[in-house]
Amino acid sequence: MNIGYWLSSEEQSPHDLVQNAKRAEDAGFGHVLISDHIHPWVDAQGHSPFVWGVVGAIAQATERIELGTAVTCPLIRIHPAIVAHAAATAQALMEGRFFLGVGTGENLNEHVLGDRWPRADERLEMLDEAVDIIRALFGGEYETYRGKHYDVEQAKLYDAPDTPPPIVIAAKAENAAKLAAAKGDGTMNTSPDGDIVKIYKGAGGSGPIYGKVAGAFAASEEEARKIAKERQPNTALGGDLSTELALPRDFEAAAELVREEDLEGSVVFGDDPGRWRDKIEEFADAGFTHVALHNVGEDQRGFIEFAKQFV
Fold first, then answer.
1. Alpha carbon distance 218, 229 (integer Å)
2. Looking at residue 238, what is its pLDDT?
3. Catalytic one among 10, 25, 31, 37?
């Protein structure tokens, strides 16, 4: 199991994201995953810088560690041709240490230009086309594409990468897992869902499988529960709320119904290494090859020092 560190753009400033990526590299972590949002889930998280600027800074601050987006939505807020341009530049700056994680996104981030928020099946169609466009542009030639959802007219990336960054497709449902197997270089899920892993592999997927262990790192379980409830209540929201709600205040309103005990199972509470290790093993048992550790609290320096025992 390759143990990584989660760079939460919703919870850390641009400067802190860069510093924490460097700390993770120095601590021996194998990879970092960075979220790509324009809004945080709730206002208490307090941040959401432009991920591509941060990626460029991390490229200059680090030398060894791999970095991937978790995940970029190349559908509405940013056209897939622009995502291809950004990812190619990131790969150049990271000198081959970058991968592009993509998914179908959330209304929280994609509504901001006034576009319609499509249904899940349509978003997967859009992602399918987007991956084709991104891969074509990575080739460094002029490309024209006319699809159901996107048009590209004679676009060329002049700094196309010699080695294209892998494209890792997030999958929480069967149809997304099959798309990841067909067109991705790996897949990703924030839950240790062994059934999705089996579907991905059964459809021919053979790439790395990335996961995330979320926890509230604190000296006591009581403090950890309070931190998790304040800063990550969205973790406990069921159904399609995480993809359908539009604003942080909507998540805050829904989270008024969330109790601390509702976060059990999805968030590790406290600083007991055994609890963190048990959650890591859940992902390993489900067939994941990589897992990034995410502390939802503010003490990232202390957490990195604590978590390096799992590397």
1. 13
2. 83
3. 37
State residue 60's pLDDT score: 98
Please enumerate in sequence order all residues whose Cβ is within 8 A of that of 247, keeping only pairs 6 or more positions apart, or say none.
Answer: 39, 108
Measuring CA to CA, which residue among 104, 169, 178, 111 is closest to residue 135?
169
- Burial of 156-185, coded b for 16+ CB within 10 Å and e otherwise, reads ebeebbeebbbbbbbbbbeebbbbbbeebb
- Residue 144 gets the label, from left (phi > 0), alpha (psi -120 to 50) or beta, of beta
Give the C-alpha separation, 231 to 44, whole Å: 6
Catalytic pick among 106, 110, 125, 143: 106
* Catalytic annotation present for 31: no
- List for the chain the helix, strand, coil content (%; round to 5): 45, 15, 40
Tell whether the torsion through CA atoms of 5, 10, 11 and 14 is positive or negative. Answer: positive
Tokens standing for 276?
A: 């963190």
d(CA 151, CA 153): 7
CB distance 157 to 86 below 8 Å: no
Distance, in Å, from the CA atom of 258 to the CA atom of 113, rounded to the nearest integer, reads 30
- pLDDT (tens digit per residue) in 7-49: 999 999 999 999 999 999 999 999 999 999 999 999 999 999 9
On the question of pLDDT at 239 being above 90, the answer is no
User: Is 153 one of the annotated active-site residues of the chain?
Assistant: no
What global pTM score does this model have? 0.98
3-state secondary structure of 286: helix
Q: How many CB atoms lie within 10 A of CB 119?
A: 9
Q: Please provide residue 34's backbone torsions phi and psi, each rounded to the nearest 5 degrees.
A: -125, 130
**Over residues 203-227, mean pLDDT:** 98
